[in-house]
Amino acid sequence: MNKLKSSHLFPLLLSFMVLASCGSKNQITIEGTLTDGAGKTIFIEEMSPSDRIFLDSITLDKKGHFKFTYDMPYKTFYNVHVSNDDYVVLLPDEGSTISMTGSYDSLSLTYHIQGNDDSQLLWQLQDYTNNGTRALRQLVATDRHNAQLLEQGQISQREFDIAHAYTDSVYLSTFSEQQQYVVRFIEDNLGSLATLIALYKPFNGRQLINPEDSFEFYEGVLEGLEAYLPDNPHTLSFKNQVERTRFQYAR
Question: Rounded to whole angstroms, how far apart are CA atoms 210 and 156?
């Protein structure tokens, strides 16, 4: 057998080194800078169809910056959170880099990202929800203020009831607007895993798309995912769930 000549060896080794330096095509990068975050910790989880898998905890540097790289096993969701109640969901593509800004002390209400399309879609969905949440908080504050005025005798019961009926009507209108936005979001983005997040989106603790009343949206989301991501674990898991739900309401 002929030995490989030394003159051919160096270019071959160099090509291996170049390939290795490029990293895996599945590698993703999540980085960001959060105000009020210096020295604090964020947590990153992979969200499989059945569980959340802890990946890393990262201490932000003195500028509030962090960086995380990971070889993504398949297209899936990633949860970046500062607490159990304050988190951001990302949906990277293979080889993508996602950059995040926002406030550590109010991450889900302030974050903004640059990166792949699906993660941008989830940001748009969350941003619309945030607008509704702010309106809801204002309604709650108004109701509490009016209740105090009633207790202090500064307004009558009738005045309070009128004001409360108004805030109730604004809440119902806000809920309807959120619902309509989610419906349009799903219809415009069939085939994206982002539609799974939209499908289960709650507002004020109430699910916007109820399977008992709007099961056709579940079937539509499944049809889109089977067309574009038929072998993805989230698609396969959701298919089983749709079949169980169909059986439940058929009885």
Answer: 38
Q: Domain spans of the chain?
A: 25-114, 122-250
> CA 168, CA 207: separation in Å to the nearest integer?
18
Q: Is the dihedral of CA 171, 176, 179, 185 positive or negative?
A: negative
Structural contact between residues 5 and 71, judged by C-beta atoms closer than 8 angstroms: no
Q: Would you say 56 and 125 are in contact if contact means Cβ atoms under 8 Å apart?
A: no
Amino acid letter at 135? A
Rounded to an integer, what distance in angstroms lies between the CA atom of residue 218 and that of residue 213?
A: 11
CATH number 2.60.40.180 given to 25-114: yes
Q: Which two tokens stand for residue 72?
A: 């993504």
Burial string for 30-69 (b: 16+ CB within 10 Å, else e) reads bebbbeebeeeebbbbbbebeeeeeeeebebeeebebebe
* The token pair that represents 151 in the structure block: 């207790």
pLDDT tens-digit readout, 76-130 = 999 999 998 899 999 999 999 999 999 999 999 999 999 899 999 999 999 999 9
Give the integer Cα–Cα distance in Å for 25 and 34: 28
Give CA torsion, residues 166, 172, 178, 184, to 10 deg.
-120
